[in-house]
């Protein structure tokens, strides 16, 4: 079987898929952390691998950038490949000035500027939430690994370059920790399809101070977040 965007056969993805935006971050995770990793998708260069981590079958596949792209890949993995859990492992810009480069954030909620949710024709505003058990698995894993994990509301933005002069300040006033571009669509697909989702994010840049990591660092060095996600995948496999 294949979908318009994924060439893998049914059964070739694990119950839990880690999803970075960047295909080369997916490759790095497969090569660094998975045993016997097999490339199961490369349509449009969206690399997907399945292997084992400490004996547990785990997959990693890129989502591409932005909500339309995440919307397609998470929908197809959940609907056609029996994937139960997707953990996004992304980069994010700090809004809260207490966040430092490389801090790790779990998006308990994903507020958004996107119109992705209009398709559900809900007469109100849906809260886009992480799955509680997946979030708990990540929090517990971070503690076991001795990693600090900040948990809170994040912004999934349709824009990387945003023209509104007070955009960051206005979201920050409402307690938003950081900005990225995919989690809200992932959370909405998971809610609609009865699946579990979580976004883990590493702070890659601080717009307030101009501090930033390089593209190569975003691809290959956010290993603490990757390990939290992999340990959470082991916990979820036992449920
Ligand atoms: O590093 P990734 O996972 O791609 O995540 C962030 O980086 C991209 C923008 O540079 C967007 O996809 C944003 O969500
Ligand atoms: O979406 C993103 C990701 C990283 N940094 C940002 O400022 N925005």
Automatic annotation (TrEMBL):
Nucleoside phosphorylase domain ranges (all copies): 16-228
Entry EC number(s): 2.4.2.1
A Pfam family this chain is assigned to: PNP_UDP_1
Entry-linked InterPro entries: DeoD-type (IPR004402), Nucleoside_phosphorylase_d (IPR000845), Nucleoside_phosphorylase_sf (IPR035994)
Keywords: Glycosyltransferase, Transferase
Top EC class of this enzyme: transferase
Gene Ontology molecular function: any one: purine-nucleoside phosphorylase activity
CDD domains: PNP_EcPNPI-like
Stored NCBIfam families: deoD (TIGR00107), PRK05819.1 (NF004489)
Function summary: Catalyzes the reversible phosphorolytic breakdown of the N-glycosidic bond in the beta-(deoxy)ribonucleoside molecules, with the formation of the corresponding free purine bases and pentose-1-phosphate.
Protein name as it appears in the record: Purine nucleoside phosphorylase DeoD-type
Originating species: Anaerotignum propionicum DSM 1682
Protein's gene: deoD
């Amino acid at each position: 079987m294949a979908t318009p965007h994924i060439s893998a056969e049914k059964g070739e993805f694990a119950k839990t898929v880690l999803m970075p935006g960047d295909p080369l971050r997916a490759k790095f995770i497969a090569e660094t952390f998975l045993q016997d990793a097999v490339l199961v998708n490369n349509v449009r260069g969206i690399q997907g691998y399945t292997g084992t981590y400490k004996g547990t079958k785990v997959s990693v596949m890129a989502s591409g950038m932005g909500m339309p792209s995440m919307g397609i890949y998470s929908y197809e993995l959940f609907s056609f490949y029996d994937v139960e859990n997707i953990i996004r492992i992304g980069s994010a810009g700090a809004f809260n000035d207490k966040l430092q480069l490389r801090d790790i954030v779990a998006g308990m909620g994903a507020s958004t500027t996107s119109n992705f949710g209009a398709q559900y024709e809900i007469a109100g505003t849906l809260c886009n939430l992480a799955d509680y058990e997946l979030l708990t698995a990540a929090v517990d894993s971070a503690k076991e690994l001795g990693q600090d994990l900040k948990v809170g509301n994040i912004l999934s933005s349709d824009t990387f370059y945003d023209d509104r002069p007070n955009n960051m300040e206005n979201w920050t006033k409402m307690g938003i920790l950081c900005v990225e571009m995919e989690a809200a669509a992932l959370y909405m697909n998971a809610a609609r399809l009865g699946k579990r989702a979580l976004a883990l994010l590493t702070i890659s840049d601080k717009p307030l101070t101009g501090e930033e990591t390089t593209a190569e660092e975003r691809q290959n060095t956010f290993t603490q977040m990757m390990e939290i996600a992999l340990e959470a995948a082991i916990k979820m496999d036992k449920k």
